[in-house]
Amino acid sequence: MAENYTDTDGQKLLSRMQRWARSLGFQAMGVSDIDLRDAEAKLQDWLAKGFHGEMGFMAKHGSMRTHPEQLVEGTIRVISLRMDYWPGEAAEPWKVLDDGNRAFISRYALGRDYHKLMRKRLAKLAKRIEREVGPMGFRVFTDSAPVMEKAIAEKAGLGWIGKHTNVLNRDHGSYFFLGEIYTDLPLPVTDATSAHCGSCSACIDICPTQAIVGPYQLDARRCISYLTIELRGAIPEEFRPMMGNRIYGCDDCQLVCPWNKYAQSTVEPDYLPREGLDAPQLIDLFNWTEQEFLSRLEGSPIRRIGYECWLRNIAVALGNAKTSAPVVNALQQKAEHQSALVREHVTWALDQHQLS
User: Fold this and answer.
1) Is 65 known to sit in a ligand binding site?
2) Are 287 and 165 found together in one domain?
3) Which of 181, 183, 133, 136 is nearest to 1 (CA)?
4) Any domain includes 24
5) What is the pTM of this model?
6) Binding residue per annotation — 257?
7) Contact by Cβ (8 Å): 252, 208
8) What is the domain extent for residue 321?
9) What was the pLDDT predicted at 1?
């Protein structure tokens, strides 16, 4: 374990660390202790209600998720970092959502997968800190292990968890990724911020599937992000009409949030749109072969759902599109697809056009 610091020395080190973090492309850095009892109680309640659906990983690992010292022995502090991803150059989201012939993809997934980029930057920061203080225990995380990243970010002062359950910052909105460094370095903790959602219910009201069942309560089983990304089987029919043209994720609760008028455009070229994914034609994407899917989306977070779910999601969107010969023809071409999952969703989509 690294040496103990006086309050003054600790604050000076913290200030230097924040400068190093900014130089590596992070917009903010804070430090929290490892007391996550409040978050643990909320997690257990959420799991007890079954809101996690088929995301079994949320219930695995016992208490490691809410006890950082169990996940990484010796941990006494968590360094939390924020990196903005809003692609300012992308097509205007509401215009894409209003065009039933185009596909809407969550803005975080338009460019390269953030996991590798963030992990490399976190490791560089940890090594830079180590050069300053000497050998220390640490491990970096980017949505890659049982880590309560939102609760940690809130404790570290990077923002507050809003009614939509995303972390919000008064000066940057919610379009940012989070990363963590678990460490045995006895750093001073940074102050948490207060919540500023007030009486606003915009995110609750806008949700297409009413997945935000109450302030700060998300039933993932109803969430379009869960349905299009995490769910591997058939999408429940009751939700299909509500999905519109959203084929990978859903940003409605963030798009309508008043605080996102302060969102900052990303400075990372890797987060900018690739392959025209900010406003692509549904039929064009539906016609990709599996090889095209794999090659065009190389390095993209979208690849993790696989080609079968990709076609499943687009079939639903085409079912919600305005009836036209090109739409019907595209669906009919995959009516005998080798995947039963794809066939089932194509049949449903054709039924919406009264042509099964």
Assistant:
1) yes
2) no
3) 136
4) yes
5) 0.95
6) yes
7) yes
8) 281-356
9) 45
